[in-house]
Design brief:
Blueprint (H helix, E strand, L loop, with lengths): L1 H22 L13 H8 L4 E2 L7 E2 L13 E2 L11 E3 L2 H6 L3 E4 L2 E3 L5 E11 L4 E5 L4 E6 L7 E2 L4 E6 L1 H14 L6 H13 L4 H10 L5 E5 L4 E6 L6 E2 L4 E6 L3 E9 L11 E6 L2 E13 L9 E9 L10 E7 L9 E4 L4 E2 L4 E6 L6 E13 L2 E6 L6 E5 L1 H10 L42 H23 L2 H16 L8 H18 L4 H19 L9 E6 L2 H4 L2 E5 L18 E6 L1
Antiparallel strand pairs: 1-2, 1-3, 4-24, 5-26, 6-7, 7-16, 7-20, 8-15, 9-11, 9-14, 10-13, 11-12, 13-15, 16-19, 17-18, 17-20, 18-19, 21-25, 22-23, 23-24, 23-26, 24-25, 27-28, 27-29
Helix pairs in contact: 4-5, 7-11, 8-9, 9-10, 10-11
Length: about 600
C-alpha cells in the first residue's frame, strides 16, 4: 500500500513538471509581444537566406539549397559576416583589377582643425627632362637602349645610325684635309659642319688619322637619367632633330594633385603638404606647394596643385597614386562632397558608389547617393557620403560585377541573389535564356556585328580555359596571347562606357596571363578575367551555341569564382585534378 502511494506521488510530480515545461513558458512578461504565425512572416520578410556553399543562391525565405540540398542560412550571419550590400575581395583580386580608392571631402585633424585631402599622382619633374635626338638624317641600325625605365649615364652609347649625309661629310673631310694648307677656310668649314652634328674633336681626328669613312656612326647620351619614353625603333629612318629617347632625372619628382573649385581659396604657394603614397602607406613625406595653376580647367572644374619631392632613394615612381593633406583653416562646403565621375554608377534610377568600410581589409559597401550636379569629370554628392570616407574611384564596375556573380546586391539588382524563375531542376541548372536574367545582372547592349565577332574570339578563351584544366602553363601563355590579340581586334567605337570597361579589363587580364609563366599567378588573373568575360557573355542575345556559367565556391580563397564552358560537365580550371569536378552550373546562356 505504501509502495502504491509512493508511485502515485511520483506520477503526480512528474505530471506537474511536464506541465510546467509544456505550458509554463507560454506566459508573457508585461510589455512582451507574442509572435504568432503572422508576426513571424513580418520579422522574416526583411531577411535574405543563402547557402554557405553556394552564395549565389539568395531567397527571401528559409529552405533548402536547390543545388546541394543544404539548409539555407540568413545572409547577414553567413561565414564572412557581411551584409547583402557588402563584398569582400582578396588582396590579389584588388591588385589585378587595379582598384583605386580616395578619401573624399575634408576631415578633422588630431587637434580638431580641418584638413584638405587631395588626390594626385607622381609625375616626372619637367625641369629635369631632356630629349636625346638624332643630329643627322639616317636609319637606326642598332638601338642599345630600347625600353622605358632604363637608367643611362652621360657618354653611354645609345644607338648606331647609318647616315648617307654623314658618309658624304666624312669623305669631304678627307678630301679637304689634303688641302688644309692651301684652303684652310674650306677645311674648317667641313670640320665645323661635323661638330654641329655633335661629333667630337677626337672623333674627327680619328677619321683624318685612319683615312677611313665610317658607315655606321654611334650616338652617345648627353645627360644622365631614366628613360621615360622610347620614340623610335631599330630600322626606323629618323630625321635630323627627331627624338629617339626621352630622359628624366628622377632625383626630384612632382606630386600633382587635382583641387576642386571650392578648395582654391585655401591653397597657396609655400604651404606645407603631407604626401602619402599607396606603396608606403605608413609613412608621410613633407613637401612644399610650389605651384597652383592660375587657370581653372573648364572640363574638370579643377586646378593643378604641385609639390616637389626629393627622390634620392628612388622611392617614388612616376604614375604612383598619392594623397596630399593640407592642415589648417579650410573653407569647405559641409553640405556637398565632390567626387570623380568614375566613382559613380548610374542605373537610370539610382546613383551608386562603393565605399571601403574596413581599414585593414578590402571590404566594400554599395551605397546609394543623391547627386546634386556634375561639372565635367566631377560629380557633386548632396547626400549619402560623409567627409573623410574612402570610396572606389577606379575599378567600380569590377567590384559590382564580382558582387553580382556572388549573389550580392549590385547595380542592377537591388535585392541581391539570383532570380529564381521556376525553370530550375534538382541539379541547380537553370535552363533559361539570358533575357530572363536581365533583372539580376548589369544589362549591356552590343551590336549584332560585335556579338558575332565576340563569339568567334570567345573560342580562343575556351581553348585557354581547357589548358587551365590540364594545368599546362606554357600552353596557357601561348593561348592567352592569342586571345589577347583576338579580343583587342574587336571593334570598340560603338561600345558604351560599361561595355568598354569590361572588354578592356578582359584584354588586360589576357595580357597578364600571357606574361606570366607561373600557373598559380595565371589562375589569380583568371578569376578577374572571368568576372568580365561572363558579364559580357551574359548579355549576348543569341549565342551560336549554348554556354554554361559554372561556379566553384572554394576557388579564389573560398571567395568563389566563375568560368564559361561549352559542356555541362564540370571541369574546374582553378584546381588540379583532385578538385576537377568541384563546382556547379549556375546558368545556361542560350
Amino acid at each position: 500500500m505504501k509502495k502504491n502511494v509512493l508511485y502515485l506521488v511520483a506520477a503526480v510530480f512528474v505530471g506537474l513538471l511536464c506541465g510546467y515545461f509544456i505550458f509554463g513558458n507560454n506566459s508573457t512578461a508585461p510589455g512582451e509581444k507574442v509572435l504568432n504565425d503572422h508576426d513571424h512572416e513580418e520579422v522574416g520578410s526583411s531577411e535574405m537566406w543563402t547557402c554557405s556553399m553556394h552564395p549565389q543562391i539568395m531567397q527571401p525565405e528559409p529552405g533548402d539549397c536547390p543545388i546541394c540540398g543544404m539548409d539555407l542560412i540568413p545572409a547577414e550571419t553567413s561565414a564572412d559576416g557581411l551584409s547583402a550590400n557588402e563584398i569582400k575581395m582578396t588582396e590579389n583580386a584588388v591588385a589585378l583589377a587595379n582598384i583605386q580608392t580616395t578619401i573624399v571631402g575634408s576631415v578633422a585633424g588630431e587637434s580638431g582643425e580641418n584638413s584638405i585631402l587631395l588626390s594626385g599622382k607622381i609625375v616626372p619633374n619637367d625641369e629635369n627632362n631632356a630629349v636625346q635626338a638624332s643630329y643627322f638624317d639616317g636609319r637606326l641600325e642598332r638601338l642599345h637602349v630600347n625600353y622605358e625605365g632604363q637608367k643611362i649615364q652621360k657618354g653611354q652609347l645609345l644607338a648606331t645610325i647609318y647616315s648617307p649625309n654623314l658618309v658624304a661629310a666624312q669623305q669631304e673631310l678627307l678630301t679637304t684635309a689634303t688641302l688644309k694648307e692651301s684652303q684652310p677656310a674650306l677645311y674648317e668649314a667641313v670640320r665645323n659642319k661635323l661638330k654641329l652634328w655633335k661629333l667630337s674633336d677626337a672623333q674627327i681626328a680619328a677619321i683624318e688619322t685612319t683615312g677611313k669613312v665610317k658607315d655606321n656612326f654611334p650616338i652617345y647620351a648627353t645627360v644622365t637619367g631614366t628613360v621615360t619614353e622610347v620614340t623610335a625603333r631599330e630600322g626606323d629612318y629618323v630625321k635630323q632633330g627627331q627624338p629617339i629617347l626621352k630622359v628624366s632625372n628622377l632625383t626630384t619628382v612632382w606630386a600633382e594633385f587635382d583641387a576642386y573649385e571650392n578648395q582654391i581659396p585655401s591653397l597657396k604657394v609655400g604651404q606645407k603638404i603631407k604626401v602619402v603614397s599607396n606603396a608606403y602607406a605608413a609613412k608621410e613625406f613633407e613637401a612644399i606647394i610650389s605651384f597652383v595653376d592660375p587657370i581653372l580647367s573648364n572640363a574638370t572644374r579643377t586646378v593643378i596643385v604641385r609639390a616637389i619631392l626629393k627622390n634620392t632613394d628612388d622611392l617614388f615612381k612616376p604614375g604612383m597614386f598619392v594623397t596630399g593633406k593640407i592642415s589648417g583653416d579650410t573653407n569647405h562646403n559641409e553640405e556637398f562632397i565632390t567626387v570623380p565621375a568614375s566613382a559613380v554608377m548610374w542605373t537610370g534610377e539610382r546613383s551608386l558608389v562603393y565605399v571601403k568600410t574596413s581599414v585593414d581589409q578590402p571590404i566594400f559597401e554599395m551605397r546609394e547617393v543623391k547627386i546634386n550636379g556634375r561639372n565635367g569629370e566631377n560629380i557633386t554628392i548632396a547626400n549619402g557620403l560623409q567627409h573623410g570616407e574612402e570610396i572606389v574611384t577606379n575599378g567600380t564596375f569590377t567590384i559590382d560585377a564580382a558582387a553580382q556573380l556572388q549573389g550580392k546586391k549590385s547595380m542592377m539588382n537591388k535585392m541581391g541573389g539570383r532570380v529564381m524563375t521556376g525553370h530550375e531542376n534538382h541539379t541547380g541548372v537553370e535552363a533559361t535564356s539570358n533575357k530572363a536574367e536581365t533583372s539580376s545582372h548589369m544589362e549591356m547592349e552590343f551590336s549584332k556585328s560585335f556579338q558575332d565577332d565576340f563569339s568567334k574570339a570567345l573560342h580562343t578563351y575556351l581553348e585557354m580555359k581547357d589548358a587551365f584544366v590540364s594545368g599546362e602553363p606554357q600552353q596557357i601563355t601561348s593561348l592567352a596571347k592569342k586571345a589577347a590579340a583576338a579580343f583587342e581586334s574587336l571593334p570598340k567605337k560603338d561600345l558604351g562606357t560599361l561595355e568598354k570597361e569590361h572588354l578592356e579589363k578582359s584584354i588586360d587580364m589576357f595580357s597578364a596571363i600571357g606574361n606570366s609563366g607561373n600557373l598559380e599567378q595565371q589562375r589569380e588573373h583568371l578569376v578577374v578575367l572571368n568576372e568580365h568575360i561572363v558579364a559580357i557573355t551574359m548579355n549576348l542575345k543569341s549565342p551560336a551555341e549554348n554556354l554554361y556559367v559554372q561556379r566553384c565556391p572554394m576557388a579564389n580563397n573560398n571567395q568563389g569564382a566563375v568560368w564559361l564552358s561549352l559542356d555541362e560537365e564540370i571541369r574546374n580550371p582553378y584546381f588540379d585534378s583532385g578538385m576537377l569536378t568541384c563546382g556547379s552550373v549556375v546558368q545556361v546562356i542560350q
